[in-house]
């Protein structure tokens, strides 16, 4: 008898197989004397489509809404059907007496395994591998401490509720709004509130009217100051004449220092990285998108084994890591950070405190830190080096002393007017040493030696004309912060930690949410900024406040977190989602706005017609030669599917997404007519360059249809 290990990806399966000494490669799995290692390829099992409950749901019609099945059903993912069959056969095999779930240790990883387990009708006992590092030592230690799979039931219920609630809101909301307004309008439980955050900011910027103002800057020889109204604490002057009057009044007059305050400010080291904070910093420093940062982090975790599990929402470590900290610091020193590690290596005891070690604030995984695996940075890509550098410096910084400086604020009174001067004087760089220009930071303040009561002549003054500025547009760094805090952009790290459980989405899903609202045409990237399109703004205009509310979505995410911790009944949550789904349909019908989307025609979008525009035939089905190829919201399919025809091509399958293209109606028309089509402007994931690829129809061994490259373009 053997134990079956199910990993989430082939690459992870190979790492586990190496540690467990499994060397016999089979089709879809690797076998050893005691273990068989197999893998999913993402989600092998997905939720059934509406028409698989009732053929009436194939047609988008208000009369069939809301679609709320008594039980949401599962099915194999057509794109990975062959691997599902392999995994299922192994799970039910008589030579397997126990299963080990080794999918990613998180909510979605748990869902991937449980859905396979449920659809395969497997009843064998299973254990859970829960690791934060894919190093050999990390995997080996994980297998020495396997846990009963039932210990993660609550996590599965949370993941299941997330999956089913997204299906219910997405299917019903998308159909209701698309039918009513005659345009394909994808709706999402999380994506719609995310869009609203961007739209609200863009509208605020559009409505902003800049105003001119003036400032008077004075030069006292060895220091300068800005005119200020002390009562209002305001330096802006609303007219050029008033600014001129102030300048003429004070010029060459003697000033007296009436107030001098020197305050010591202590800035503690930042917390360790969770995924959202890492995405934010990499966007600010390198311009990487949230998705790109996640991809690089996954490479550092899976391929390089250089960092711990990246899809974490915690910024703390657990007590069991304390004995490893010194050796980890020494290892990082050998990678080119000796300048910084040497200071810590001299310490008799590391300054471990609750800002670093806090078991109560670690749920699924601890913060992202380097692993103890020896690495060669010269073999890393530039992007991998950049991201690893952020993580390594942050890890070292938490053990450094506080950054301390004097904040100096001084008021000089001249001829009845006041001028404010302020500077900072570094006392101790502390953790800033890892980030700062030391010469700039330690430059001596010009104000520090001035005392209250001293006098200086105002030698010259100049007037600067300025304009008020609108709020900044959202870039990904700002948006990630707002998503994490349910629409409240907060800089204070302590407060952010308290509000994290009320965020929109999770660290693992926020990047895909951003990419989703871009792919459906609601948002565009312009430089680093994310700007809503006309379609996106119109969508927010027509959706109910409840559907687009970041706060409500944040409360749902908090409820899912409670379910994962066993503190909330999953059924109660889903009942609330069911009521909300019905509300969406009623609201669309009762509160239709006079908004027209591009492509609208009189025969589309009216409740009386109750149909979508997808059902115009593209051509004869090349598979059955009888049915007609039709367009659906997500794919192209045969009208004879009910009679068993398996022709189907997804608009955005894994391969298409990889090359940043979508299958269009024109492309499918050429495919079914000519069997081949040239797709122009595909983007190479390796070089980011564009190329043209020839693709042709392909029938898989299980009868399903799709496409493949004919000219080696897949290697780009």
Q: What descriptors fit this protein?
A:
7-stranded antiparallel sheet, Rossmann fold, 7-stranded mixed sheet, alpha+beta, 21 helices, Topoisomerase I, domain 2, single chain, Topoisomerase I, domain 3, 716 residues
Describe the protein's architecture and organization.
With 716 residues, this protein is of the alpha+beta class. It has 5 domains: 2-145, 3-Layer(aba) Sandwich (Rossmann fold); 162-207 and 472-590, Topoisomerase I, domain 2 (Orthogonal Bundle); 212-268 and 403-467, Distorted Sandwich (Topoisomerase I, domain 3), CATH 2.70.20.10; 275-397, Orthogonal Bundle (Topoisomerase I, domain 4); 619-715, no CATH class. Helices cover 36% and strands 20% of the residues. Strands 2-3-4-1-7-8-9 form a 7-stranded mixed sheet. It has a 7-stranded antiparallel sheet with strand order 15-12-13-14-11-10-16, covered by helices on one side. Strands 19-20-21-22 form a 4-stranded antiparallel sheet, with helices on one face. A hairpin with a 2-residue loop joins strand 17 (523-526) and strand 18. Helix 3 (107-119) packs across helix 5, helix 6 (191-207) packs across helix 15 and helix 8 packs across helix 9. The chain is globular and about 95 Å long. The two termini are 43 Å apart. 37% of the residues are buried. Mean pLDDT is 89; it is low at 600-614. Residues 2-135 form the Toprim domain. Keywords: DNA-binding, Isomerase, Magnesium, Metal-binding, Topoisomerase. Its EC number is 5.6.2.1. Belongs to the type IA topoisomerase family. One of its GO terms (biological process) is DNA repair.
